Amino acid sequence: MKKTDWPIRWDLLLRYRLIETIALWEGRLTTNHICHSFGIGRQQASKDINTYLRELAPDNLEYDRHLKGYVPSDQFRPVVTHGTVNEYFDLLARQQTLSSTFESLNITLPESTILQVPGRVIEPETMRAVIYATRHGRQLKASYLSLSRPEPVESFLEPHTVVCIGNSWHVRAWCHANREFRDFALHRFVRPPEALRQRAKQSSQQDEDWNREVTMDLVPDQRLSEAQQQIIARDYGMEHGHLHIRTRAALAAYTLSALGITLDSQHPDPLVQQLELVNPDQLGFGSRRERALKAVAGLS
After folding, report:
1. CA–CA distance from 114 to each of 37, 92, 96, 117, 216 (Å)?
2. Above pLDDT 90, what percent of the chain?
């Protein structure tokens, strides 16, 4: 991409996104939000807000003299964000991480916290090798562990995509030993894999499950009462009691797992389960069903 092809400088785009996110989800934006987050002066922060309003979203914000800050107008429409709560979560998480790393910085947003859960340990050398091979279409020589086969297994992989799922990372790759595309958790490499000079012959274009899209039809757990089902439907913004999620077939099992749904069993308590999948046969797992279950469970 040429420099002139990008309409907004990256640093400005980040500041505009903060402006939009804070205004939408907290209801009041001040120059302090920008000053503390980016280490810039009040004059520059004020200029950023005015430029955002003049060039991107003239009707999005109004200045409230009583609150001494900008508030979203009735005509507010997201232009540099999607307007989803996950964007506010990401902002809080980023600010909290920076503040915990650099204790002298005072950039956390008040009265908020993000629960930090332990993540899998991944060596930087492992991530670098995987990213290099993925980005440049190279083969990887790897030694891999799995819960179903604890002894290390040597294999040659041809990765095409690195995937982050919650607190875990895996790479989607063609496995020479198994002659198929599989998921490999980065924390299960015994040692950093070696990026080879050999070009990968298999790419994402040959990965059938990666290119095949499926639509999961989710409904409230039918064991719940009608009133409870209506609450669950409202929680997820369901239409006519159904939530349709479209994703790659290769990622469907992970998506379901993140929602507390497994492919082979239900939780005995519907108050814990809450959701159920009504079209498992239409996902087309077939003989790959067991492998998908093992991958999500970390067995493979």
Report:
1. 17, 7, 7, 9, 29
2. 57
pTM of the full structure: 0.73
Cβ 220 vs Cβ 278: under 8 Å: no
- Whether the predicted pLDDT of 290 surpasses 90: no
Using pLDDT thresholds of 50, 70 and 90, give the confidence band for residue 149.
confident
On whether the CB atoms of residues 155 and 196 are closer than 8 A, the answer is no
* Cα–Cα dist 54/40, whole Å: 20
> Residue 287 is encoded by which pair of tokens?
């003989």
Which DSSP helix (H) or strand (E) runs through 168?
strand 168-175
Q: Largest Cα–Cα distance in the chain?
A: 68
The first and second tokens of residue 63, run together, are: 């200045």
Neighbours of 55 (CB within 10 A): 11
pLDDT in tens, 86-107: 888 788 777 776 665 545 455 4
Q: What is the pLDDT of residue 218?
A: 96
Q: How many CB atoms lie within 10 A of CB 237?
A: 7
- pLDDT, averaged across the chain: 86
Alpha helices, DSSP H only, in 78-156?
85-101, 124-136
- Taking a C-beta distance cutoff of 8 angstroms, is the pair 34, 94 a contact? no
pLDDT of amino acid 300: 62
Question: Distance from first CA to last CA of the chain, Å, rounded?
Answer: 39
Q: Quick check: 144 and 153 in contact, CB under 8 A?
A: yes
Other CB atoms within a 10 A radius of the CB of residue 174 amount to 22
- The tokens of 139 are what? 């083969």
> Is the pLDDT at 126 greater than 50, yes or no?
yes
**Whether 125 contacts 192, CB under 8 Å:** yes
Provide the residue type at 163 as one letter.
Answer: V
Residue 199 phi/psi, 5-degree rounding, is: -75, 145
